[in-house]
Amino acid sequence: MLEGGYIGQILRINLTEKSTRVETLKENDVMKLLGGRGIAAKMYYDEIGPEVKPFDAANKVFFMTGPLTGVSLPSTTKFQLATKSPETGTYLCSNCSGRFGPQLKKAGFDGLVIEGQAQDWTYITIEDDRVTFGDASKWQGMTTEQTLGVLREQIGDKQTGALSIGPAAERLVRIAYINVDSRAFGRGGPGAVLGSKKLKGIVVKGSKKIPVANPDRVKAILEAANLNLRESRANHTKFGTHQYIEVINELGAMPTRNFQTTYFEDGAQIDAAMMKQKYFVKNYACFHCPVACGKICEVKEGPYAGARARTEFETIGLIGPNCGVADFGAIVKGNQICDALGLDTISAGNAIALTMELFERGLIKPEDIDGIEARFGNAQAMLDIITLIGERRALGELLAEGMRGVLAAHPEWSPYIMQVKGMPFASYDPRAFYGNALTNGTSSRGACHNVGGWTIRAELQSGEYDRYALEGKGKLVQTIQDNRAYVDSLGLCTVVRGSMGFSDNPTGDVLKAVTGYNFTPELIEIGGRIYTIERLILNREGLDRKDDQMPERVMNEEIPSGPAKGHRISQAMYDIMLDEYYDVRGWDQNGVPKPEIIEKMGIPEILGNTGGAVI
Amino acid sequence: MDRECIQVQIKYFANFREITGKPEESIQFPIEARLTDVIDWLNKRYELALPNSKTIGILNGRGWMQFPEQLATPLREGDAIGLMPIIHGG
């Protein structure tokens, strides 16, 4: 194994047998896939066949750190998850910060695999190499935060890493998240996978030191990066991602009233200035992060007084403007309810907005939704629908099945549903940035602004890519996707990556200093390899070009108002971008990687269970 | 309105709102003004150093550098310019 950055071991915990096993992290996997998202995807490929359903005992949850996770550098809190998603029914990768990843490494493990299904509600403690199983039956119904608290009590350390699920995941709500030290594996419903395994939470504490190859150089990089970040990310420190509200709104990309338009007329009621003026309490920083982009907000007066949450852009956009809600206090409250139940705010916001549109169109009636007057702008209705979903009541029973479930039951509602591969959109309307359509269409986990490659800046700032142009977007999206894939495999937050040279054209010696090996020239190639493996998984599970498409609203409806008025992306327009994307990736026109690109990337030597399926 | 001038709307976002103390303002420029003239005015008036890598400058919803003539793009009556911090994804 390399000189530093890795421990060299993966812990497997089987809930059916209440057994554990330690296996060696393979050096070849590290050299070809780095860690984090890359190795988690490889493990998924090797171990989760297309026949496995999300709630089967055979489904597994792969938690994987990267070489930088827990190392003394800025914001090295990240670790990655892979599992079969209850929301999309296919591969899910997810990224999260918190203390869990660093503590897992300090306990002696680069990765943790959860297998099987417990008979009764269970929690797990990991203290270095000691693993215990506890009875969590008395914790049923606890919120995610309450569960984190009782988990930490089990090992007497309030500061250590823990992850938990809430009541929604216990009920197998398919948009339930995993709370990790008050951060989230948010999308795709991984909380419900743990719920199906009757695993309420895990707490981990380690005492070992994470090795680094060149400690003096790491210290020097840390100091330089901190200096860089204090200046370059000053706006993040001040405003967090709230600063995007007025920007995205002004650019005409803000989902408004279930993506019916893209400019919210009451944007000033919910923007960064309003947050700072009336609701801001204090900043929140992840482990070793000088940026502190988290903003803890509290409602001080009015009907939601006392509500407290760490709001951010996506949540505000989707339970705010997308539900027509202009009351920031209600947004804080809605965020808090989602956290308590353990619900992904992005998918929840989409589900609420859909309900409101269906209600206003007369397609559902008050009696379908517990008497709620589900009109856009009704803040209390927004809050009540969150609870319906989390408790699986009335229409909430169907919404809890995710958009795939909704579409299966009501295919006639398709014109009003914004999703790709069953995953609802984040808080950007792709009609306002055409590259963003390709982002969402080709993301490895369904509609996603991050995994799919966040193009907004390039589509505004670069002289090469006009936001409404089609040509060049395939290459742009591929580059950003590959960048993100390697960053997600490092164990580093995307907000700080630029301070250490982790760009589309990677520079610097961080990985040499940490691991002893200079990965830098290979990073983009590694990112492309990871993305291709993820695509092979999707192909094996039956997904291809037909599943990379835009929802009807994007293709058929012009944006009716605001700065992006008149724009839509027709099938013919989208096909131009998609064809170019497949071409630059070396995939055929059905979205399947060609044998020569698979060979060129050395993928057959990496995947352990190819069974002839790769080529 | 002066027949030899055009009116340009300038919107300030996030930190630029703090720097300027206002969300927007309308400024008159000579009829032959180009984008670079507005940038010069902004730099002088608010002690900025535009363009730079930390700022996204937009003109009528498109990036400054996305016009064929880039910073030399001629301005027209009613053009809307925006200054926003660089954004990194949410």
Note the main sheet of chain B.
5 strands, mixed
Largest interface: A-B, 38 and 22 residues
- Specify the helix fraction band of chain A: 25-40%
What name does CATH use for the topology of the domain at 1-55 in chain B? Ubiquitin-like (UB roll)
- Give the strand content of chain B: 25-35%
CATH-level-4 superfamily name of the domain at 1-55 in chain B: Beta-grasp domain
The main pleated sheet of chain A reads as: 6 strands, mixed
The helix/strand class of chain B is alpha+beta
Number of strands of chain A: 17
The CATH class of the domain at 1-55 in chain B is identified as Alpha Beta
> Beta fraction of the residues of chain A?
5-15%
How is the CATH topology of the largest domain in chain A named? Aldehyde Ferredoxin Oxidoreductase,  A, domain 1
Shape of chain B: globular
User: Could you tell me the radius of gyration of chain A in angstroms?
Assistant: 22 Å
Quote the average pLDDT of chain B: 91
**Which CATH first-tier class of the largest domain in chain A would you pick?**
Alpha Beta
What is the H/E order of chain B?
EHEHEEE
List keywords for this structure.
heterodimer, A: 615 residues, alpha+beta, Aldehyde Ferredoxin Oxidoreductase,  A, domain 1, Aldehyde Ferredoxin Oxidoreductase Protein, subunit A, domain 2, Aldehyde Ferredoxin Oxidoreductase Protein, subunit A, domain 3, 6-stranded mixed sheet, 24 helices, disordered C terminus, B: 90 residues, Ubiquitin-like (UB roll), 5-stranded mixed sheet, 2 helices, 20% helix
Question: Your description of this structure?
Answer:
- Chain A is of the alpha+beta class.
- Chain A has three domains: 9-205, Aldehyde ferredoxin oxidoreductase, N-terminal domain (Aldehyde Ferredoxin Oxidoreductase,  A, domain 1, 4-Layer Sandwich); 233-410, Orthogonal Bundle (Aldehyde Ferredoxin Oxidoreductase Protein, subunit A, domain 2), CATH 1.10.569.10; 430-487 and 519-605, Aldehyde Ferredoxin Oxidoreductase Protein, subunit A, domain 3.
- In chain A, the strands form four sheets. Chain A has a six-stranded mixed beta sheet, with helices on both faces.
- Chain A starts with 8 loop residues before the first strand and ends in a 15-residue tail after the last helix.
- Chain B starts with a strand and ends in a 5-residue tail after the last strand.
- The model of chain B has no long low-confidence stretch (mean pLDDT 91).
- Chain B has a domain at 1-55: Ubiquitin-like (UB roll), CATH 3.10.20.
- Chain B is globular, with a radius of gyration of 13 Å.
- With 90 residues, chain B is α+β, with helices and mostly antiparallel strands.
- The interface between A and B is medium-sized, with 38 and 22 residues.
